[in-house]
Amino acid sequence: MILDWFYEEGPRGPENWKNICAIFHKAENESLQSPINLKEEEVTAEMDGNLLAFDYHATNFRSSFFNHTVHLNPVAGEKINHVVFNHKRYTLEDIHFHLPSEHLINSQQFPLEMHLVHRSAKNELLVIGVVAEPTQVPLNKKLAKIDNIALNPRNAARGFVVPILLNQLLPEKRTFFNYSGSLTTPPTEGPVEWLVFKMPVYMRQGLLKAFEEQIGKTNRPVQERKGRPIYLADK
């Protein structure tokens, strides 16, 4: 059964997702929810940045459009990409986008947030959040190709395959917040290990405009922290 949910206010908007069905209700009530406002002044403790390591490669991704946004998934047979966090290995399985950013960084919202979704061998989820700001020109030709083909919402549903250098999607300065939360789309179940970079990356202004015009608002509002610890790692 397909259950429609939306980002606009109303009976199927974010404030009412938990009322759509029992599965959504259970997920929201039994998990600490995401996204949240990540404030340096509220950090519980510092974390060793060396607990996070990337094993990313140039990889072909296929674009698609579902759950109101653009998704990129590794093409079958490609070399597997991993991150290791706190001595546990997670495999990258999906990249998708929210507009504007779902997490706030020191109470600031950004035009876009990219989520890199990873899963461990024990089915545990780790999501890396990368916020983005606009730039007038692409940073290099490879990123321009990604912008123009794979990420443009008009093209995504056509299933383009495009090579991506994953490390180029991450900020140069990799200070990150860490906390435990949930998925940000229904069912918003947890736990999800969240790593959110403090510094933004830069995305072409034209691509952000295409997202705004063709997708519109795709962010869940911030949720209550409810006393959970937040860690900050300077990497």
TrEMBL record:
CDD domains documented for this protein: alpha_CA_prokaryotic_like (cd03124)
SMART domains: Carb_anhydrase (SM01057)
Transmembrane keyword on record: no
Classification via InterPro entries: Alpha_CA_prokaryot-like (IPR041891), CA_dom (IPR001148), CA_dom_sf (IPR036398), Carbonic_anhydrase_a-class (IPR023561), Carbonic_anhydrase_a-class_CS (IPR018338)
Membrane keyword on record: no
Domain Alpha-carbonic anhydrase: 3-235
Enzyme Commission number, as recorded: 4.2.1.1
Cofactor: Zn(2+)
GO MF annotation: an example: zinc ion binding
Catalytic activity: hydrogencarbonate + H(+) = CO2 + H2O
Sorted UniProt keywords: Lyase, Metal-binding, Zinc
One Pfam family hit: Carb_anhydrase
Function: Reversible hydration of carbon dioxide.
PANTHER family given in the database record: CARBONIC ANHYDRASE
Family: Belongs to the alpha-carbonic anhydrase family.
Name the UniProt record assigns to this protein: Carbonic anhydrase
Taxonomic source organism: Carnobacterium divergens DSM 20623
